[in-house]
From TrEMBL:
<protein>
    <recommendedName>
        <fullName>Bidirectional sugar transporter SWEET</fullName>
    </recommendedName>
</protein>
<dbReference type="InterPro" id="IPR047664">
    <property type="entry name" value="SWEET"/>
</dbReference>
<feature type="transmembrane region" description="Helical">
    <location>
        <begin position="131"/>
        <end position="152"/>
    </location>
</feature>
<keyword id="KW-0677">Repeat</keyword>
<comment type="similarity">
    <text>Belongs to the SWEET sugar transporter family.</text>
</comment>
<feature type="transmembrane region" description="Helical">
    <location>
        <begin position="71"/>
        <end position="93"/>
    </location>
</feature>
<keyword id="KW-0813">Transport</keyword>
<keyword id="KW-0472">Membrane</keyword>
<dbReference type="GO" id="GO:0051260">
    <property type="term" value="P:protein homooligomerization"/>
</dbReference>
<dbReference type="GO" id="GO:0051119">
    <property type="term" value="F:sugar transmembrane transporter activity"/>
</dbReference>
<feature type="transmembrane region" description="Helical">
    <location>
        <begin position="46"/>
        <end position="65"/>
    </location>
</feature>
<dbReference type="InterPro" id="IPR004316">
    <property type="entry name" value="SWEET_rpt"/>
</dbReference>
<feature type="transmembrane region" description="Helical">
    <location>
        <begin position="192"/>
        <end position="213"/>
    </location>
</feature>
<feature type="transmembrane region" description="Helical">
    <location>
        <begin position="164"/>
        <end position="186"/>
    </location>
</feature>
<dbReference type="GO" id="GO:0012505">
    <property type="term" value="C:endomembrane system"/>
</dbReference>
<keyword id="KW-0812">Transmembrane</keyword>
<dbReference type="Pfam" id="PF03083">
    <property type="entry name" value="MtN3_slv"/>
</dbReference>
């Protein structure tokens, strides 16, 4: 039992490191925004979604919701802080319509999250019931957020080009899903198993597509929709499979 717990902690620490890399991977995009003092065609949607997602997983990992989930809390807490920094930069260099969108979405998310916390603590008693509600919500959010990487994969198949699906990011997504799936499997946690199983599958498909279409990729071809494709890649960078 002690050996299993040690193995789980080691795997969880490795997962934290990989997840941190994924959270930080959009940094070049925001450095570009800061340098040019303009958000250009980039949108805040994936980062707004990640804020709520991270908050839900932090709440899931609380001792009074799902005990023995410290490593889930740490990485999602860090991720939440990173996403807030991203949104702050976006807000500073946006025009008023985009700022208003950010403020409205954050307000809606704050109210929604507050409602989740209120219902969980006031009407659900015991960690089993609380884990079930928050875990199901977290899984639903994760499944919905896989729509964006699917868009990129569809583009790869259509164009037979992997130019805008970075290999190392796809590899990191696969490794991240696999590590957190293993973490959840050692001490069965179905609410971590399901999204990370999907994350592992998504990462594996991306790697298969990369191997399939690498030779047909025209690396010198210009793409007028580069910013849009970068945006579509952003959620898979910003959303580790367990978050």
């Amino acid at each position: 039992m002690a050996d299993a717990e040690l193995a789980r902690n080691i795997v969880g620490i490795i997962g934290n490191v990989i997840s941190l890399f994924l959270f930080l991977s959009p940094t070049p995009t925001f450095f570009k925004i800061w340098k040019q003092k303009s958000v250009q065609s980039f949108k805040p949607d994936p980062y707004l979604a990640t804020v709520l997602n991270c908050a839900v997983w932090v709440f899931y990992g609380m001792p009074f919701v799902h005990p023995d989930s410290l490593l889930v809390v740490t990485i999602n807490g860090i991720g939440l802080g990173i996403e807030v920094i991203y949104l702050t930069i976006f807000f500073i260099y946006s025009d008023w319509p985009k700022r208003r969108k950010v403020l409205i979405f954050l307000l809606v998310e704050f109210v929604f999250f507050g409602l989740i916390v209120f219902v969980t603590l006031m009407f659900l008693h015991g960690t089993k019931n609380r884990s079930m509600l928050i875990g199901i919500l977290a899984i639903v959010f994760n499944v919905l957020m896989y729509a964006s990487p699917l868009t990129v994969m569809r583009r790869v198949i259509k164009t037979k080009s992997v130019k805008f699906m970075p290999f190392y990011l796809s590899l990191a997504n696969f490794a991240n899903g696999l590590v957190w799936f293993s973490y959840a499997f050692i001490k069965i946690d179905v609410y971590l198993l399901v999204p990370n199983g999907l994350g592992t599958l998504s990462g594996a498909v991306q790697l298969i597509l990369y191997a399939t279409y690498y030779r047909t990729t025209n690396w010198d071809e210009e793409d007028s929709n580069k910013s849009e494709v970068e945006l579509q890649n952003a959620p898979s960078a910003a959303l580790p499979a367990h978050t």
